[in-house]
User: Fold ATP-binding cassette domain-containing protein from Paraburkholderia sacchari.
Amino acid sequence: MTHQNDSRRAGVDLKSSAPLIEARRITRRDVQRDQVLLQSTDFALHAGQRIVLTGPSGSGKSVFLRALALLDPLDGGTLHWHGQPIAPARIPHYRRHIAYVRQRPALIDGTVEDNLRYPFSLAVYRDTAFDAARARALFDAAGRGSGFLARETAELSGGEAQIVALVRVLQLDPEALLLDEPTASLDPESARAVETLIAQWFEHDRTARATVWVSHDPVQAQRVGERHITMRAGVLDEPAATHAALGALR
Ligand SMILES: Nc1ncnc2c1ncn2[C@@H]1O[C@H](COP(=O)(O)OP(=O)(O)OP(=O)(O)O)[C@@H](O)[C@H]1O
Assistant:
């Protein structure tokens, strides 16, 4: 299945389409400490949705997002992508489309351009190629002008590093972004740039794209999501108000 086909399928009327991602009774455990990190959880993310996830520190928000991204192995339950279970051989393909963005970016040594080129060296991206003009346009949108591609990553501020990490993801046209406090340690100007990039990516094809955004900032939470879910001690919950809003979509 190509990405275009995936997106087209995700863009079908919400009434008839399967969720972009659906978790069925997924669980995560810390085996060493014999502790449940994520209680049995059902969850659906539809194309077109922007979800905000809040909850106390240590409640399991990152555990949940990383499980949804299939970055950590599930201890129970299944994930479905466009209505299909994800076979082990398709996990790299799934991760290509469902991107996890962490609070502290991990960049490789070298220039910004080296970082943007890196994904295209992986087998799963061999059908695409680095597009410098597109990368420049994305950096322009984030207020980083000409010459930014040539900057050494070791010299970047935390905010600039996060912008690079995000552009590295956005240039690959993901379907969903799982955003784990992406602006929490940034200065206000960089935080705005990150929000702008994500908003433009979403608006470009909002019937096919979706976000889950973890935020501790109530004002930001209002800006970046319409559906609100909470995590407490590994239990995911959805306040009644957003159940009603979601019902109106169905
Ligand atoms: N891979 C792991 N193995 C074992 N324990 C883990 C693992 N990942 C997270 N934990 C533990 O699970 C609990 C939930 O952590 P998590 O990082 O998901 O919290 P959070 O809600 O994202 O918190 P914060 O808002 O501070 O980022 C913590 O007690 C953490 O130490």
